[in-house]
Amino acid sequence: MYKLKNKNISGEKIAEVLSKPIVNFEYSYPVSRQVLDDALVKGISKSTHLPFNSVYKIIRLQAIEGKNLRFSKYSVAEMETYMQNVLLRDADQMSMAVALEVRVPFLDFELVQYVLGLNDKFKYPSTPKKLLTDSLGDLLPREIIDRPKMGFTFPWEHWLKNELKSFCEEKIISFGKREYINAEVVNALWSRFLNGDKKITWSRLWHIIVLENWLSENGIE
Q1: pTM of structure
Q2: Domain interval for residue 25
Q3: Residue 164 lies in a domain
Q4: pLDDT digits (tens, 9 = 90+) for 42-61
């Protein structure tokens, strides 16, 4: 019997990984960042075929070019996807909201190239961000190094169920009326979310709602 070290990994994501032709990094990383798994997307879209995952192509290209260091592959995958599309966008929006100009010196090209070339043995974390904190020595106080992670957290679940509920329901209904969308599946997701099903996170519904809003705003049928 095996136990999961990461309790945030859902059974659905594990099943998705195990359904792939090979259980390796190229196939498993894209699943780790998916909001909607392939089976659910097929159910929502009435489709039996999905476009090939472009994140897989990015990671696979590294392997072909001989960039096989495990941690470096993960870093490149994060930089090409989640960091660009979420972290940098969020940092820019949050900083601009208070007229603060943010710089990202750790993304300096030469520094990134150097760190990606370092052997994995230097990166195994006995402490969070070990390579970074070790390089700074006594310049960084322990209270900063040991401080719990602070992220961008907002009460989205509460908003979707309260202040934004009517807006969300309008978009869910509108989305379900599209000829290529399975309204029954979408409505079931919304109902399960409202009834407190922990397997249906707010982000799953929000992606659908934002997509429908974008389609409507741009007059796309």
Answers
A1: 0.74
A2: 11-122
A3: yes
A4: 889 887 777 777 777 777 66
